[in-house]
Amino acid sequence: MFGVTTMGATEDSILSMVRTMREAGFGSVEIIAPIALAARNYPAGLRGELQSLLRQFEWVTVHAQSAHVDRREQLTDPQERDRLLREHVEMMRFAHEVGGQVVTWHPFMPHKYEIMLAPRFEDDDTIDHHVEAGKHLLEHACRLDLSVGFEAFDTRIVEGIDDRRWGSLFDIGHASQNGARAPFSDVTEQALSMIRERLDRIVQFHVHGVRRKEDGFVAHQPIDDENLIDYEPIMGLLAGGGFEGPLIFEILRTDNEPMSFDETVSACVAAKRRLMQKGLD
Predict the structure, then answer these.
(1) Most C-beta atoms within 10 A of its C-beta, which of 99, 112, 192, 203?
(2) The predicted structure's pLDDT at residue 177
(3) What's the pTM value of the predicted model, to 2 decimals?
(4) 162/131 Cα distance (integer angstroms)
(5) CATH superfamily of the domain spanning 2-277
């Protein structure tokens, strides 16, 4: 079920953004709620209005942006770790209040981008910290009837937690934005292989295009003729594998120029139409 992210939403704009998505015909929505700012960005009255609007969607996900860990010691210091986990639990409570079914988080910084993009992260201790934190968060997720996970490719996190409610957010664009690695011949083949390995534990997908530029690859692009990812076999794999969860468009820029929200919605409508013309929905 295709949807759109509310990246860039504020207290003043979130309701109109959600209405626009529904009017555009999307059945899923991703609410962005930065770690530690949920209570400030979404006060009680706004949560009630948001909950009413979100009842119109089949899938409601909450995606929390980076937990700002400046040094790894913060993950082992008891006080710092407790604060960090409390903020993650607050995200789940917020999601439950507004009717969410899925909550995902960026990995802990300072390794966020490395662990988000690497199929296997080199620092075993960091993986262990994510597994330990995930087990704690899973207890709260089960009480709130949520599926949860980190946006990370390293399968050791999911395997270490080993519970069907804990999965991962798989970003198809991020799987492709560094180009194809051996033995894969192109980014689509690479993404397909990665998805096959993880499909039974993926709770949500991010969907966007990747373009080749002179200095490398650029993600979060429109799904158009310049996009390098062939989504037809990918969507075929998801359908054949029984995935029925949220597919959230994260189309945010053209080349390196940021889009307005209206431009994002238009690009997402075009992407949905393009995929549906291939029988992919």
Answers:
(1) 203
(2) 85
(3) 0.92
(4) 10
(5) Divalent-metal-dependent TIM barrel enzymes (3.20.20.150)
